[in-house]
Amino acid sequence: MKFEAILFDCDGVLVDSEPIVNGVLRDMLEEAGWAMTLAECMATFVGKAVRDERALIAARTGRPLTDDWLSAFYERRNQALREGLAAIDGAHEAVAAAHARVGGRIACASGADRFKVEMQLAQVGLLPYFDGRVFSGHEMPRSKPAPDVYLAAADHLGAPGARCLVVEDTPTGVTAGVAAGATVWALCPSPAQASALQAAGATRLLGHMGELAALLAPG
Questions:
Q1: Of 66, 150, 203, 218, which residue has the fewest beta carbons closer than 10 angstroms?
Q2: Segment 65-98, tens digit of pLDDT
Q3: CA dist 203 → 166, 174, 179, 206 (Å)
C-alpha cells in the first residue's frame, strides 16, 4: 500500500448527507409531479449531480428543470444539512490516519458543488484536513463517472493517478476513480451494494470507515 496520495469522496464517505439531501429532493420532485419513496429517490440519484439529470426530471415531471428550481433545491438542501448533518461514523479517525500515512497529501474530490462540500466538511470538523484541497465536479469539464475531479486532485498533490488511493461509496464514483488510474476502495455498509461496487472496479470493500483507519495505521 505505497500510496502517494489519498483522495476521498465526500457524501456518503465523510458525511452522512445522502438521506437528508434525497429527502429534500424527493419532496420537491413530488411537488413537481414525480412521486416516489425515499429509497427510490436514493437509488435513482445517489452518486449523481441533480443538475446532470435534467432530462430525466423533465421527462418524469412533464416540466423543464429550471435554474430557479435548482436554486430553490440548493437553498432547501443547505438548510436541511445545517440542521441535521453528521459525520460518517469513523470518518474522523480514517481521515487522520490517511493524513498521517501520506504526509498530508489528501484531498476531497466530490461531484457536488463547492459550497456544499466545504459547508459540510466545516460543519463536522473535517475542513482543516482538506482546506485548499477540495475539488468539485461542478468546476470540471465532466462530472463523475468521468475521472476529471480525481485527476485534478491528484495533479494538485503531485501524484500520478496510479499512485493514489480513492475512497468512494457509489458505483458512479468508483468508476471515476478507476478511470483516473487509481486504486479504489469502497465503503459498503450494506452487502446489497457489494456486487455493484465490485463490478465498477472497487478492489476492497469497507464495512465501516474504522476499517480504513486500521488499514492505514502504522505498523
A1: 218
A2: 999 999 999 999 999 999 999 999 999 999 999 9
A3: 11, 10, 14, 10
Instruction: Give this prediction's pTM.
Output: 0.90
Give the closest residue to 161 by CA, choosing from 141, 147, 172. 147
124 alpha carbon, distance to own chain's centre: 15
Reading the block at residue 169, the C-alpha cell is: 461509496
Q: What is the C-alpha separation between 147 and 128, in angstroms, rounded?
A: 25
CA neighbours closer than 13 Å in the CB half-sphere of residue 32: 22
- Would you say how long the chain is, in residues? 219
CA-based torsion, 123, 127, 132, 136: positive or negative: negative
d(CA 24, CA 36): 12
For the segment 192-219, what is each residue's pLDDT rounded down to a tens digit?
999 999 999 999 999 999 999 999 988 6
C-alpha triplet 164, 11, 7: angle, nearest 5°: 10
Bridge partners, 136 (sequence order): 110
Residue with cell 435548482: 70
